[in-house]
Amino acid sequence: MSRVTLSRYLIEQTRSHNTPADLRFLIEVVARACKAISHQVSKGALGGVLGSMETENVQGEVQKKLDVISNEILLEANEWGGHLAGMASEEMDNAYQIPGRYPKGAYLLVFDPLDGSSNIDVNVSVGTIFSVLRCPDRKGDEGDLGEDAFLQPGTEQVAAGYAIYGPQTMLMLTLGNGVKGFTLDRELGSFVLTHDNIKVPETTQEFAINMSNQRHWEEPVKRYVGELLAGEEGPLKKNYNMRWIAAMVADVHRILTRGGLFMYPRDGREPEKPGKLRLMYEANPMSFIIEQAGGASTNGEQRIMDIQPTSLHQRVAVYLGSKEEVERVTSYHKK
Ligand code: F6P
Predict the structure, then answer these.
(1) At residue 137, does pLDDT exceed 90?
(2) Is residue 120 exposed (0-12), middle (13-18) or buried (19+ Cβ within 10 Å)?
(3) Which residue has the higher pLDDT, 150 or 61?
(4) Is 247 in the pocket of ligand 1 (CB under 6 A)?
(5) What's the half-sphere exposure (Cβ side, CA atoms, 13 Å) at 317?
(6) pLDDT (tens digit, 9 = 90+) per residue, 296-314?
(7) Close Cβ partners of 256 (under 8 Å, ≥ 6 residues apart)
């Protein structure tokens, strides 16, 4: 049987689900950029790409060299094709304008070019997360694209995905009708469909959270994690295992593969911030993928994809993965 490459899958989607040709082209270009990032990441110390820059991003985080390289790769790959009206990235304060010499298109691309980049120097998995939105009608306004065009709830996403650069490079993608997983075949140079029908099991005995922040958590989280840790002797009457890779892509990838619950609650370290993770280019795309695989995703109070964003780099608390546990921890917040 012939192998189904990403290109072939996208063409089939055009036939079966009317996926527009320009969206197909956009996904192909993002996938090509992810191959280039994968190549850079894999060079490690040999490519002189490890370590930090002397700069900080808009979040005040020190930028790794590979954060900046990955951002450049995504911008350069996507700016000329005529499928985008603008881009936004974790690594840039403001919306990126498509240079005037190139045609503009119907979509907006939002990304975290290299998620979990503190893992790079220790050779642990990192990834690229992306979300695609439609650009609202700007009614003849040819001026610069403002941040407001991007401020759409996650339910408006037309596609989302991530590439994970681990022992294998994989691309996980949703166009709103399920989740497909593609593995990079380095000999062919193509992403090949290897995971056809990805489903997050409804129940789980595994959770992921940075336990070192326990003393800063709010009461419902302390109670819930306390019950997980109590195991068979506690009210939940089963033992739970814990994993924390500290790269959202890698933790979410494990959950897509075998189930689990991922948590990054808001906490008392910076009480004015509603969490650590970013809504537009981390939580929303991952929530879309998880929901499309049958899982759930909330901020403890509401479905993440229903949140109306108010700024590009807005933060949010995240509970996502196997439905039963997401519902349980969300219900503790509501009590
Ligand atoms: O983007 C933020 C991020 O690197 C996520 O990928 C990851 O889940 C989290 O931060 C790790 O946080 P911490 O440093 O608290 O373990």
Answers:
(1) no
(2) buried
(3) 150
(4) yes
(5) 24
(6) 999 999 999 999 999 999 9
(7) 172, 179, 181, 198, 200, 289, 290, 293
**More confident: 117 or 142:** 117
Annotated binding site for Mg(2+): 90, 112, 114-115, 282
Residue 318's closest CA among 293, 294, 285? 285
Give 238: exposed, middle or buried? Use CB within 10 Å, 0-12, 13-18, 19+.
Answer: exposed
Question: From the CB of residue 150, how many other CB atoms can be counted at a distance below 10 Å?
Answer: 23
**Which of 62, 115, 269 maximizes ligand 1 atoms within 8 Å of its Cβ, making it the mutation to test the pocket?**
115
Q: How far apart are CA 257 and CA 232, in angstroms?
A: 25
- The residues that bridge with 153 in the sheet, in sequence order, are none
Domains and CATH numbers, the chain: 6-195 (3.30.540.10), 206-334 (3.40.190.80)
What CA–CA distance (Å, rounded) separates 205 from 114? 29
Note whether 256 and 317 are within 8 A (CB). no
DSSP conformation letters of 235-276: TT-S--EE---S-HHHHHHHHHHH--EEEE--BTTSTTSS-S
Burial of 143 (0-12, 13-18, 19+ CB in 10 A): exposed
Sequence-distant contacts of 17-20: CB under 8 A, at least 24 apart? 17/175, 17/177, 19/175, 20/106
Query: Is 163 in a helix, a strand, or coil?
Result: strand
User: SS3 of 40, please?
Assistant: helix
Is the minimum distance from the CB of 67 to ligand 1 under 6 angstroms? no
Residue 268, C-beta contacts closer than 8 angstroms, at least 6 positions apart: 216, 217, 218
Helices (H), 44-124: 65-78
Task: For residue 237, give both structure tokens.
Answer: 């009457």
Predicted pLDDT of residue 256 = 97
Whether the predicted model's global pTM rises above the 0.85 cut: yes
CA distance 92 to 71: 9
What SS3 state is found at 147?
helix
- Burial class for 196, CB neighbours closer than 10 Å (0-12, 13-18, 19+): exposed
